[in-house]
UniProtKB/TrEMBL annotation:
Keyword Transmembrane helix assigned: yes
Protein name: Plasminogen receptor, C-terminal lysine transmembrane protein
Source species of the chain: Pygocentrus nattereri
Keywords, in A-Z order: Membrane, Transmembrane, Transmembrane helix
Membrane-crossing residue ranges in chain numbering: 53-73, 79-99
GO biological process: positive regulation of plasminogen activation
Record's keyword annotation contains DNA-binding: no
Originating gene: PLGRKT
GO cellular component terms listed in the entry, alphabetical order: plasma membrane
Length: 149
């Protein structure tokens, strides 16, 4: 009788462990999907910001380039044209960010860094752990430390 009860309890325990593992897996998949969606939204906002910035900066750049070029020709002072050069670099960068391949090149470079220079990515003092976070939280709230087991 005791053996049958023990066997039944073991089966129930195994089923419960499998169920908990399944739920943990689903929860992790949801977290990964949520984090990826948030990342995608942030990148989309960055690209949208660049496109909006282009509208304003492009107008400013056009007016400045036209005015400085006209002034340089009219006054016969080529030095007046000089500010157009650095402004054009900013304009090209923003255009590349908004409509070009800058994002793709940045991603490729990031993948290269992760593959070949992974040691540069380590966090100072290592990866945070539950214990280190809890210790810092308790220190800020002046609670007694966790008991060690």
């Amino acid at each position: 009788m005791g053996f049958l009860l023990s066997k039944s309890m073991d089966q129930n325990l195994k089923k419960q462990q499998e169920f908990m593992l399944h739920n943990a897996r689903i929860q992790m998949e949801r977290q990964i999907l949520m984090q990826n969606e948030m990342r995608e939204r942030q990148v989309a906002m960055q690209i949208a910001w660049s496109r909006e910035f282009i509208k304003y900066f492009g107008t400013f750049f056009s007016l400045a380039a036209f005015g400085l070029t006209a002034g340089a020709i009219q006054r016969k002072k080529p030095a007046l044209f000089a500010p157009v050069i650095p402004l054009s670099f900013i304009m090209v960068y923003q255009l590349d960010m908004a409509y070009g391949t800058l994002i793709h090149r940045m991603r490729d470079e990031a993948e290269s860094i992760m593959a070949c220079e992974g040691d540069r990515l380590s966090m100072p003092r290592g990866m945070p752990t539950f214990e280190s976070i809890e210790r810092a939280r308790r220190a800020k709230s002046h609670l007694p430390p966790l008991s060690e087991k």
